[in-house]
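ok, trying the design again with the full structure, not the truncated one.
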């Protein structure tokens, strides 16, 4: 199922981050503010592609009752399928997992 696939991709990613951080003596890892903004803008751009469709749907939980708010805008999820999301995460790991993050080493 898609949910099981998503959980598998997410836990594989988190396990890699934890394992790599422990191996490298990292005690904290967090996203750079610029990386958060870049990701959010990517999500918004992809979500906008479906904007006309959502605007013509019956108001519901899924389209925020056809009202926009900053909270709703920040709740957008990855717009592609689970396989593409997994590929995105795997690509980040293959690049070393350092792009867009601040890592704090143990002292």
């Amino acid at each position: 199922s898609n949910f099981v696939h998503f959980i598998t991709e997410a836990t594989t990613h988190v396990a890699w981050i934890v394992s790599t951080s422990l191996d490298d003596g990292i005690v904290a890892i967090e996203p750079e503010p610029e990386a958060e903004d870049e990701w959010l803008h990517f999500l918004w751009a992809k979500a906008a592609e479906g904007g006309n469709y959502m605007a013509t749907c019956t108001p519901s939980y899924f389209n925020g009752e056809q009202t926009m708010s900053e909270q709703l805008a920040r709740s957008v999820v990855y717009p592609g399928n689970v396989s593409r999301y997994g590929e995105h995460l795997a690509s980040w790991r293959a690049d070393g997992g350092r792009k867009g993050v601040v890592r704090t080493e143990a002292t």
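Keeping the full-length input from now on. The chain has a mean pLDDT of 85.
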